[in-house]
């Protein structure tokens, strides 16, 4: 049996929100959420003359761009404070001799040959990262947690599962993102956002997923320690990427941000369903009126 046109339109519009358009939109508004984003939508034709016209009618998409007019639409900036980061030992970096030149801008000082991060700067970058994650979740984007931390693998995987997203904490196969069709043996979508609780892989090397995500222009959020390079990360967050308490904090913060984005999406989908039902009733009433006439 054929699917009714209204249900087909609704399904197609919901699936369209999971397209890479969300990724391109987030890139275009990085760091300037206060600016308005202009959107153009075609108005539905109110005059319906036949059933054929009803079948071809497509309603406008869910309007989500108004959230970009708010600096903190989801209230995620209140989740993180310098005091909270300090309590979870986020300010500890590696030894000063291993300091990456790109991380000097985030350093508060050096004590006992150990790098100390400026938590005011780390807090600002964490808030920006949480805001991005919430916006991606609102647009039903695919979020992938990637890390090679054996002592925190279960924590990261459980966090992704609770968020309804994905995680990769095992050995990375080259081409998992850039040649996903050959690796997965099927057609797969690449993620809209990759979150790295740590950018390091085995033997202190940079995780290969960082390079693959950069090649595909996939936005990345990463906790970048003092011995790591932030150049290929879209939204770097300077901080400790070794201590379990710090990793636990990162997972809790991102889980809450993603949950808030999805909660807002559920509300908007419910409004969309109500709008579709109302317009369908209006169409049916017009058709019945014309038949009687």
> For the residues shown, what is the average pLDDT?
81
| CATH topology term of the domain at 76-268 | Rossmann fold
C-alpha geometry: elongated
CATH architecture assignment name of the domain at 76-268? 3-Layer(aba) Sandwich
Helicity level, as a percent range?
A: 40-55%
Number of helices: 9
What does this structure look like?
The chain has 293 residues and is α/β, with parallel strands linked by helices. 42% of the residues lie in helices and 11% in strands. It has 9 helices and 8 strands. Strands 5-4-6-7-8 form a 5-stranded parallel β-sheet, sandwiched between helices. Strands 1-3-2 form a 3-stranded antiparallel β-sheet. The protein is elongated, with a radius of gyration of 23 Å. Mean pLDDT is 81; it is low at 1-62.
In short:
With 293 residues, the protein is of the alpha/beta class.
Fold blueprint:
Layout: H1 5-16, H2 21-28, H3 51-55, H4 82-87, E1 92-95, E2 107-111, E3 114-117, H5 119-138, E4 143-146, H6 153-163, E5 166-168, H7 180-184, E6 193-196, H8 208-215, E7 220-224, E8 235-238, H9 244-292
Parallel strand pairs: 4-5, 4-6, 6-7, 7-8
Antiparallel strand pairs: 1-3, 2-3
């Amino acid at each position: 049996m054929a699917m009714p046109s209204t249900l087909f339109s609704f399904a197609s519009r919901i699936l369209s929100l999971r397209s890479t358009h969300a990724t391109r939109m987030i890139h275009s508004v990085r760091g300037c959420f206060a600016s308005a984003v202009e959107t153009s939508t075609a108005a539905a034709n109110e005059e319906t003359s036949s059933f054929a016209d009803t079948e071809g009618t497509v309603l406008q998409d869910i309007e989500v761009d108004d959230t970009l007019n708010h600096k903190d639409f989801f209230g995620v900036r209140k989740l993180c404070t310098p005091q909270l980061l300090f309590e979870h030992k986020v300010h500890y970096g590696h030894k000063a001799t291993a300091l990456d030149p790109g991380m000097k801008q985030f350093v508060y000082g050096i004590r006992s040959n150990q790098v100390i991060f400026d938590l005011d700067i780390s807090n600002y970058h964490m808030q920006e990262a949480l805001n991005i994650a919430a916006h991606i979740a609102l647009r039903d984007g695919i979020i992938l947690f990637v890390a090679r931390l054996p002592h925190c693998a279960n924590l990261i995987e459980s966090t992704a599962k609770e968020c309804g997203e994905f995680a990769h904490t095992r050995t990375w196969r080259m081409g998992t993102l850039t040649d996903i069709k050959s690796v997965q043996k099927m057609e797969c979508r690449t993620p809209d956002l990759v979150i790295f609780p740590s950018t390091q892989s085995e033997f202190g090397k940079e995780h290969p997923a960082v390079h693959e995500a950069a090649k595909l222009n996939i936005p990345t959020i990463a906790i970048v320690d003092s011995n790591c390079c932030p150049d290929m990360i879209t939204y770097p967050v300077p901080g400790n990427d070794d201590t379990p308490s710090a990793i636990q904090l990162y997972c809790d913060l991102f889980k809450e941000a993603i949950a808030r984005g999805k909660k807002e999406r559920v509300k908007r989908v419910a409004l969309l369903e109500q709008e579709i039902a109302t317009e369908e009733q209006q169409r049916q009433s017009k058709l019945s009126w014309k038949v009687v006439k």
